[in-house]
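Async update (no meeting this week)

Hi team, since we skipped the sync, here's where things stand on the single-chain job. The sequence we agreed to prioritize is pasted below, unchanged from the tracker. I ran it this morning and attached the output directly underneath so nobody has to dig for it. Comments welcome in thread, and please keep replies under the output.
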Amino acid sequence: MQPHTRSLIAASAFAVVTGRKVAGLFDHALGGDRRIAAECRDGRLQGIDGDRGAKFGGTLPEIFDAVDKAFISLEEDGQGVRGYDRGSATFYTARVADGLVQVYDHGADAWFAYDVQDPDAVSGYHRAAG
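Output:
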């Protein structure tokens, strides 16, 4: 799975599970910020990946990445989401807790962590630094 797809999944997972907006992510594997935003209302997700100039979204359980032209299934499963990225033919699982999203990429056989930026706090995150 592409790193930008994992970021898209992390932002989407947070928006779907918490019902809160995403203003950006800190990608721990990258060691830096990713310009990505997402929002979910009434089962409809919309987002933009500012790093790629890519819109993504759709009616759940399917979202579409307009640049990669790939569908991603995304289903809520209690503590997070799970699904399948058709672009890479890879399953994933994402867990959301306290402003942190962890994405397990089955293709890479690894976890990836993201802190979620809070749009209501200038340069702040949903999770308190600890």
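Quick observations from my side:
Residues 3-116 form one domain.
The chain has a mean pLDDT of 93.
Reply here if anything looks off.
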